[in-house]
């Protein structure tokens, strides 16, 4: 069927080319044929998407390669999370705050640089930036493994730059999907599949880390680097070129204005400073002046960024005209839910390895159910997105985040895995895989095709930055309630303190989603009342 459609499209392109070669037609019949061809082609262009013109086999491979952007992002998170203490021991690190940086540093840049990376895709092409992103990701994954010959500073530095890879890949991969599919059930399902790869990626990353750790842990990163390089090469051949934002070549000055480098610099600086302050507070506490100085400077840069975006930039990084109250509600819910998830996933691994004394490989097996449950949740989301209000989807997602975290926060150390621990790994993916595709689809449909990179950037910025920032919050809470963490009981107290904070985050997000839901019903009722009044006036 797809081959027939592709052949039909090629035949019509040929007809149009022939008509363009003979622009003058004295015969009325030829003129009618020309008009008919133009009408038919216009109709097809308005109903067919790029992806639908591909042969089915190539479309499957194309979507699979795009999904690798999400999959490998979570591999990068899981591969370090699974062997965190193994890596820490090789560098002589034992402070929980220093160890958390090995995770937070990656999520920091993965969330911070997405805003600018999405705009780079708008200007230079989504496919080109996606290939660059995979290549960059591969390079710094290799360096992260080579850091074993140096010290933890180089490893942390490599993790920081490693995170820029997914920051480039995620928005541009999603932008390609957004530009390649017309709004509808097919697009909703593709976005759901994209989100479904996240839990599986984290589990695969942790599993292979546990396996390579039996030999030598740097092979975790070297093998990942080789895989990413292969994906970059395959993507350059398989992924079609989506429509470009600019039909003609623009000058360097126009490119600089379109990139909004000043706004991007201020925004990135603000996010880095705020995140650094909260995560560093878990290492040296707030007693150090530079910690709260960074927080204050970050707040100042936020104000400068908003001023530039609203008053100065000709092409602001964030399309504020697309940020309706509905979109703002969705992004706030996503921030709360994924911040909760960041704390949940970090501390559940510490709970398994430190308090239950299991190996990294067994801990990966214990978290493996999230991949199966996540896949089911994503497919379900793909079906219900067009049938349920977005507010209902977000409400269900925030409920899953909250319930899943409550289950693990109240789990006794010696309790059977199949009780609360197993159940929470089944519940939590429904929060992840309902909120992400819903938010991405809402923003993708809310902005024009030329802003697809920006729409994807916003969601991914919120997701990844929330994870990193919440780890700083959770670490601060842990440090203040664990009495130094000298006994297993104190360590558990610190973990639960962080989880209780996460419950508060997701609970607040649930509250926002309920307001969002009520607001939608109130608007429908108001519109119906106005429609009835109009109908009555017209009748009279």
Automatic annotation (TrEMBL):
Subcellular location, principal: membrane
Cell inner membrane as UniProt keyword: no
Membrane-crossing segments per the record: 99-117, 129-149, 161-182, 189-213, 219-239, 259-278, 290-308, 328-349, 361-385, 392-411, 417-443, 455-477, 497-518
A GO CC term attached to the entry: membrane
Keyword annotations from UniProtKB, A to Z: Membrane, Transmembrane, Transmembrane helix
InterPro entries recorded: MFS, MFS_dom, MFS_trans_sf
Protein name per Swiss-Prot or TrEMBL: Major facilitator superfamily (MFS) profile domain-containing protein
